[in-house]
Amino acid sequence: MLDIKAVRQDPEGVARALEKRGYNFDVAAFKELDARRKQADIDSQNLLAERKSVSRKIGQLVGQGVPVEEAKAQVNQTLDKIAQQVDALTEQAKQVQGELDELLLSMPNLPAANVPAGSSEADNVEISRWGTPRVFDFEIKDHVDLGEGLGLFDTDTAGKITGARFTVMYGELARLHRALIQFMLNLHTGQHGYREIYVPYIVNRDSLRGTGQLPKFEEDLFRLEGEQGYYLIPTAEVPVTNVARDRIFEDAELGDEGVKFACHTPCFRSEAGSYGRDTRGMIRQHQFEKVELVQLVRPAQSEAALEQLTSHAERVLQLLELPYRKVILCDGDIGFGARQTYDLEVWLPAQDTYREISSCSNFGDFQARRMQARWRNPATGKPELLHTLNGSGLAVGRTLVAILENYQQADGSIAVPEALQPLLGCARLQKG
Q1: 3-state secondary structure of 319
Q2: Do 160 and 87 share a structural domain?
Q3: Among 43, 71, 106, which residue terminates a domain?
Q4: Which of its termini does the chain have fewer beta carbons within 10 Å around, N or C?
């Protein structure tokens, strides 16, 4: 959520920045709402001052010869009217504040100054490439044909069990999937300084509101039936970042690099806006796995933290020897709550293109303001908002897809990346 003080100071500037993101901020409507809230506060304060003045009139009336009981009755009658007016103004201010809060919750974050201009993913800017796509001397198969050819991949049975956009994996393919999770967690906790965390896979509305999924992205979520208002998590970002909700971290708790969590969870998404896209295989599923990286840092550290977090996700791809490219998202393609985002896109031979496998974002204080996630600045002794960051380290299903396609052999078997062989216990996946 944006800082309302900053919006008040320069609403026109905020509108120009948000226009780049395709969001129309109605400055006049904001000013009118804010003026109504301010006037309700002023009127309420004036009435409270008048109430104090009226309360002192009993003695004046008695001094003028009015009987005590009659003086009390006159004053109490006036006080009752003032109380009614104060109640009405309080309710009015509450209603207006609710409208302001709703407006602020609907507004995306302001892009950082170094975010490139653009209106869609076509305007994203490539930063670098790593690795060289393999040249095949046989006909390339996609991950579905490869997995089915090995008898280890089954979407038909998944469709019978549940429906479209689900997958069943067997044997060595399921073990490879599990090995990827272990490999990523071991790397991030053992070499990159993250603390592993286990969290609920079901969250409440406050958690989703805190990280920006609600109210804007309700249709993308799976809501559970019942009165509790529970949802399946769309990503570990939600429960892990909410560890900091309504909390003040002492400076010592942040250490030198802030708080860093690594978490493996399943993720559940309705993919409401993607009908007809990537319906084949594991690219876009309702249920998939991720290893998520989350950092909670001091504001002065967040730009460097984004570079660090992104390099940690890149390291997974490098160790697996998967060619990829790094792009910075333009302001028209950046996510709702992010102020800057790098996408890592892995090479998929069957599609002859790079596809997103990780998004690494700096949210600034956008999420922290919603969650009231703070740290105590030792220079002032006062609580201040943290900066939050997160990124996939990596999306497990898409990593599996990339391995199947990049490591496929002419006979339909799959070579196992050297980094995974100790965990998997074999050097090749082949039909049993």
Answers
A1: helix
A2: no
A3: 106
A4: C
| 8 A C-beta contact, residue 124 and residue 330 | yes
Contact 355, 283 (CB under 8 A): yes
DSSP letter assigned to residue 139: -
| Residue after which a domain boundary falls, among 106, 132, 148 | 106
Q: What is the pLDDT of residue 329?
A: 98
Report the pLDDT value the prediction gives residue 60, as an integer from 0 to 100.
63
Residue found by looking up tokens 């003086």 in the block: 71
pLDDT tens digits, 350-397 = 999 999 999 999 999 999 999 999 999 999 999 999 999 999 999 999
Q: Please report which helix (H) or strand (E) contains residue 14, including its range.
A: helix 11-19
CA 312 to CA 53: how far, in whole Å?
65
267-309 residue pLDDT tens: 999 986 666 677 788 999 999 999 999 999 999 999 999 999 9
d(CA 300, CA 35): 34
pLDDT at site 275: 66
* Cα–Cα nearest to 342, from 130, 187, 127: 127
Closest CA to 23 of 110, 82, 98, 83: 110
Q: For residues 161 and 168, what is the distance between their CA atoms, to the nearest angstrom?
A: 10
Q: At a CB cut-off of 8 Å and minimum separation 6, what does 71 contact?
A: 57, 58, 61, 62
DSSP assignment of 233-287, as one string? Answer: -SSTHHHHHGGGTTEEE-HHHHTTT-EEEEEEEEEE---TT-TTSS-STTSS-SE
SS3 content of the chain, % helix, strand, coil (to 5): 45, 20, 35
Residue 397 half-sphere exposure toward CB, CA atoms < 13 A: 21
Name which of 93-97, 227-231, 253-257 the model is least confident about.
93-97
**Which residue segment(s) compose the domain that 48 sits in?**
26-106
Helices 171-190 and 302-319, packing angle to 10 deg: 140
Per-residue pLDDT averaged across 142-152, rounded? 97
Do the beta carbons of residue 130 and residue 325 sit within 8 Å? yes
pLDDT band at residue 58, thresholds of 50, 70 and 90?
low
Structural domains of the chain, count: 2
pLDDT score recorded for residue 85: 86
pTM score, whole prediction: 0.91
Structure tokens at 116: 């490139």
Tokens 């109605």 belong to 26
Task: Kindly report the CATH number assigned to the domain that includes residue 37.
Answer: 1.10.287.40
Given pLDDT bands bounded at 50, 70 and 90, which one contains residue 341? Answer: very high
pLDDT at residue 272 in the model = 67
Distance in Å from the first CA to the final CA of the chain: 54
CA 337 and chain centroid, separation:
6
